[in-house]
Amino acid sequence: MPLIDRETVQRILDAADIVEVVSDFVSLRKSGANYKGLCPFHNERTPSFSVNKARNICKCFSCGKGGSPVNFIMEHEQMTFNEALRYLARKYNIEIQERELTEQERAAASRSEALMALNAFALKHFESNLHDTAEGRSQALSYLRHRGISDAMIERFHLGYAIDKGTDLLDAARRAGFNTELMVETGLEGRSQRDGSLYDRYRGRVIFPIHTLSGRVVGFGARTMRSDKNIAKYVNSPESEIYHKKKELYGMHQARHAIARADKCIMVEGYFDVISMHQAGVGNVVASSGTSLTEEQIRVIRRFTRNMTLIYDGDAAGVKASLRGIKLLLSEDMNVKVLALPPEDDPDTFARSRSSSEVEAYLCENETDIIAFMASKLTSGIKADDPIGRAEAINEILRTLAFVDDPIKMQEYISMCSRMLGSPEDVLMRQLNVFRATRFEDLEKEHLRGSVSQDTPAESIPSSTLHQEISETPVAEQHDVTLRPYERQLVQYIVRYGLLEIDNDNGGGRTTVFDMIDSALEGDGYVFSYPPFTALCDAFRRVRDNEWPSARLRRIAEIDEECAERLSSRRAEIRNTGGSLPELEKAEKMAIAETEAFRDDAIRDFDVRFMQNALVNCPDDDIRNIASTLMMERYVLSRIYSRQGTVLTEKEQLRTLVPRAVNELRSAVVASMIRNLNKSLESFPADDPGAIEIMHRLAQLKVYQYNLVKGLGERIIQPLSK
């Protein structure tokens, strides 16, 4: 598909009015400077969905969903970024201008489209085999009906059948003009090792197509109907240019609307599990297709909900399977519950043997929070006189809990575990902090692996602003979940004021808020511990370097033209008013000053709005959501007074607040280093040379910390955790 021209994208974003877009789906009423209505993303009686026309964004202060017009359409209609742009283009009668692709882009798109077209052809062929051939009806269709699958579900999930003949699909595809090498790449055809001949890989099997979120077929799963254990039960599509197993979830295309409505995703393991649950009226069910959950799959789900329920089979293997990916889910801030089925059931048999109302009632009544589930399962069967077994179980629970970043949620979990396990909260918290430190050290080591060699001496890691005292401390020790609020404060300044120019005390001159923060962190050798914050900064640089300069020049030309008209009109008013020559000169100077102030404000407003608009409409989900959240928060700059008692201007306040926020992060980094060194000191005898070196480092850090805190006014206000 050709790419939408950048200028067309900008016209769409400029034309899309958030009030008009939301009003197509939500009844809004004026409420002060904003509009309010019932949130379309969750059930509520009191309006909590706020629409800000000036900033062109919306947000629900209950469930948190919202964003720009593009983001709203993506969320509400479950569209991709480009699909949402095309929707808005149709709404505002904007003709889509698609730029000419480069040769490389054209080749990649052509190949990708050819693979997609081949899969679409194969899907129709498999469906036709199931319904229109005697073999398909007598074997595959009978098998599906024996498994309790209705015709409606067969149609909904586009199930099919591969004829049990070596080259049925190959012959049909060749007649249709498809490239046989592409058929091998997608896994539709296999190549004999004996003579190199081609054969249909899925022959004699029921076909389960795998759809992308938008409904395109990228792969297939093929199940045998035989009970012969020497035959593989499933044959699946291999990884290809269009099929990446770690990104796809079976049933996500069919379940996306139900997931958004229910604000919950239910995860099972197999194709039949998904289909039977949908047939039972539970439509918000998807499957990982027997693989462990991946970060990419979780982020797809997060577009629709942060709530997930894992259904596991009642046997031991099912329990173990349900725990796969738990740590990854928790680290992605998902709310995770599990559901135990009766020992004799899996999701498929459970759904087929009960009515829809019974299935839904069981789901509602038997969900258990994941940590409570682990505490119950891992400690059951351990005898009271087995302290080692209990300790191992508790440590396993705490290792999982270490992946929860929300401090309030973590505290609640600690309190719950203390009650269930009979261990004091402070003991659990100390051990949890050990596991959390290990987690972040491992993450940072993985992050540094690509940029800093394991053998690179710590002294070579850049650190200028954090001074020589801490230049020997590896960056890995600087990252701690407690740093997230301080990082978030800096990102908030970047989103709200990034392109605003302020005076730079370091060497004079002027710099933007973003450059002041960026240069300080670069000098420290510090990288945000939360990857989406880093991605947002990278997106900021791209927009600033590639799109902003030319747009700014055009806008300044428009502003100058408007200023000339304003000044001319003002001068005409002065002449008509009359007065003495000194009075006319004074009025003239005032008019010029007012026009210059108008020009400065207009340029400042453009700079701020341009970057905010770019970030809240970014194709990247994380960047768009972070920017939208920070834009919609009720936030004002701290009121700062001059020595004369007057309130400082916005730029004057930022000149003070931005460096202060940088130093607050530095102080938090140093505090984290001190905690880590104190912890490592516990493992050394007092007279050990290693202990002496650590104490020397601690002394240096505490001097630096004292100077930082003193410069900050001897107290640090910790930003609110989000």
Describe the 3D structure.
The protein has 722 residues and is an alpha+beta fold. 55% of the residues lie in helices and 10% in strands. The protein has 28 helices and 20 strands. The strands form 6 sheets. It has a 5-stranded antiparallel sheet. A 5-stranded mixed sheet has the order 15-14-16-17-18. A 4-stranded antiparallel sheet has the order 8-11-12-13, sandwiched between helices. A hairpin with a 4-residue loop joins strand 4 (49-52) and strand 5 (57-60). The radius of gyration is 31 Å and the shape is globular. Mean pLDDT is 81; it is low at 447-479, 638-647 and 714-722.
Number of separate strands: 20
Low-confidence regions:
447-479, 638-647, 714-722
Share of β-strand residues: 5-15%
Shape: globular
Mean pLDDT: 81
**Helix/strand/pairing category:** alpha+beta
Kindly state the percentage of residues in helix: 40-55%
Number of helices, counting only DSSP H or I runs of 4 residues or more: 28
* Rg: 31 Å
From the N-terminal CA to the C-terminal CA, the straight-line distance is 39 Å
Largest sheet: 5 strands, antiparallel
Work out the oligomeric state of the chains in this entry: single chain
Q: Strands across the major sheet, in which order?
A: 2-3-4-5-6
